[in-house]
What we know:
Helix content of chain A: 55-70%
Largest sheet of chain A: 2 strands, antiparallel
Radius of gyration of chain B: 23 Å
Order of helices and strands of chain A: HHHHHHHEEH
Structural class of chain B: alpha+beta
Low-confidence stretches of chain A: none
Number of strands of chain B: 9
Strand content of chain A: under 5%
Distance between the termini of chain B: 78 Å
Shape of chain B: elongated
Oligomer: heterodimer
Helix content of chain B: 25-40%
Number of helices of chain A: 8
Strand order of the largest sheet of chain A: 1-2
Mean pLDDT of chain A: 91
Amino acid sequence: MSASNGSIPSPYPAALFSGLWKENPTFRLLIGLCPPLAVTSAVKPALTMGLSVIFVLVCSNLVVSLMRNLLRPHLRIIMFTVTIATFVTICDLFLKAYTPQMSEVLGAYVPLIIVNCLIIFRAEARASRSGPLISILDGVGMGAGFTIALCILAGVREIVATGRWFDIQVMPKGFVPWLALQMPVGAFITLGLILGLINVMTARKEA
Amino acid sequence: MLSNKLKYFLQQSWLLLVSSFFFGLLIAVTNAALSDRIEQNRIAKLNELTKALLPEAERFQPVEAGIEVQLPDGSKEKATIFEALSAEGQRVGWSFNARGTGFAGPVELVLAVDAGFRKIMGFNVLASSETPGFGDQIKADYYRKQFINAPAEKLTLVKSGDPAAIDAQIVAITGATVTSQAVLDILNRFILQIKDQMQKKGLIDNVGK
């Protein structure tokens, strides 16, 4: 356990930061793509969704990590799902109580976090084989990476489709909004272009 | 033999059983703590949207009249009618929810009519998933204003006309004929059926029939 002596780097920073860029769930691993496509027509709902996912991811990672030694291999998926569903339901109730407007905008996509493969993936790959602290850090890092990706996508779509960013007018008066980007097709186009851009950037770096 | 099976079952699944119990408890506690607030939010939103239609209204009192509206699929839905009362306790109108299917999914409206059920006082959209920029212009003032003071009778949709004219003809939203028609269908269905039943039950006069 006495890490960070030069030869073996401490696993904690890596657990926290890998989700931000190197293993960014949306832009690098391409998992859990339902919310990035569905709720990124504006930044506010995207941010709400991101924070909800961070909450669910951290809680489910912690609980799964605590019961990792009790899990039976053939029952682990159902245990993950029950855990995740619990925290998603709690999160959904909180949104309905404290931000009813956002809850309405997000609609069914909050309950659908239950089947977001990012959360099951982290439970399987990290939390069920690591200690509680590292699992929490992993949840925060992965959740933050996911939230940042959602906000970038939503920022581009909101500005181009409405001329606004976070509900504030940012484009000049003569700007003609391109409404198509607010529709589902806009999510695919924006995500595709951003992924292409990232591939070009990383290819240059490696070359 | 049986006890062996039971033992095996419990051995395998005790964690699921125990954690389900605790998770259920956690959700129940959260729900108990928040359900009042969620219900208040719902009522506050409905009141706010209805008050915008009936500015004189101070409070809304549900009417127990057992009024039912027949939906296109043949099923009947109980409609809750609210009597809008002014600060002095005078009736200033009626309001009720209406719903149906739009272009992209369910559309839920709140509707208000005047005290005699002769004029529509307007509608607000509670929930809809119509196409941004096209169908969701049913929330826009220029479309909704056509309904304010329109007669509480059968409304018809026209492709071109004067949106400023206050009559039973509603000018459709360009590029969103299906949504415009859907809203009209919802209004026609709920207004006509509810008006008819309220007249039969003596809640409003039969004048003009």
